[in-house]
Amino acid sequence: MKLTRNRKQNRFFKATEGIFGHNVVLYSGLMLPYIVMPAVNLKTAVALTVAMLFTVLLGMAAGYLVSEKVDLVRYIAVTVASLGGVAISRFVIRLISTEIFDTLGIYLPLMAVNSIIVMFAAQHIHKEKMLHIVGRMLAAVVGFGLVACSVGLVRELLLTGSIWGVSVAGVSFPAAGMVFFGFILLAFFGAAVQGLRRCIMRLNLRLDNPTAEELLRQQEERMVD
To answer: Is the pTM of this model over 0.70?
Structure first.
C-alpha cells in the first residue's frame, strides 16, 4: 500500500502544528473561555487575537531572559511582561473600536495569564531553540485567531445579521450570544475539521492505490491514446 500523499499531508500538518495540525483550540482545548464568552462578533475576536499576540511575545521574551533554575522568578517575570503586552495591545485595539473594551471586560487583563503563555513561555522556553519557540508561539496565535474569528463571524451573523458591524442579512438569533452556543460552535468546528482530515486521508489512499478496475481502465485509455 502506498502512502505517498498521506505522508505529504502529515508533513504539512506537522509544519503547521498549532494552526491546522493540532490546533491549539480545537485539538488541545486551550483558550476556550476567551472564545465561548467574549468572542460574540468579528471585531471582538480580532481584538482578542491582537491582545494575545502582544502578551505571548512579551511573555515569551521575559521567560527566555530569566534562567530556568529560578521558576518562581520566571513565572512572575512572564506574568508582568504579559501584563505589559496587554497594556500595549489596548492602543491597537482602540483603533478597531473603543466599544470593544466593554465587551471584553475582565477577559482582556486575564489574557496575561492565559494557558498558552503558561505552557510555552513559562515551561518550555529553555528546552528548544529561540527561533523554534517563536515559530510555535506565532502558530499558536494564528491558530487561536482563526478559530476565534470564525466563531465570532458566525455568532455576529446569526446574532445581528451583520459582519464587522455592517448589516448583511435580516437575521436575529439572540441565543447565538449565549455561552452554550459558543461551545456548540466549537464542537461543530472540531468535528468538521476531523471529518475533513479523514476524508482527505481516504481520498489520498484511493489516489495512491487505485483499484484493479481503475488500473484496467487507465491501461485501456493509454492504449486508445
So the answer is: yes
- Spatial distance between the Cα atoms of 11 and 13, rounded to a whole number of angstroms: 5
Exposed / middle / buried, residue 116 (Cβ in 10 Å: 0-12, 13-18, 19+) = buried
CA-nearest of 145, 160, 165, 139 to 21 is 139
- 86 neighbors 109 (Cβ within 8 angstroms): yes
Instruction: Give residue-wise pLDDT tens across range 7-55.
Output: 776 776 677 777 777 777 887 777 888 888 888 888 888 998 998 899 8
Q: Residue 32 sits in which domain range?
A: 4-224
Q: What's the total number of domains in the chain? A: 1
Average pLDDT over residues 180-189: 87
Three-state SS for 129?
A: coil
What angle do helix axes 130-160 and 42-65 make, rounded to 10 degrees? Answer: 160
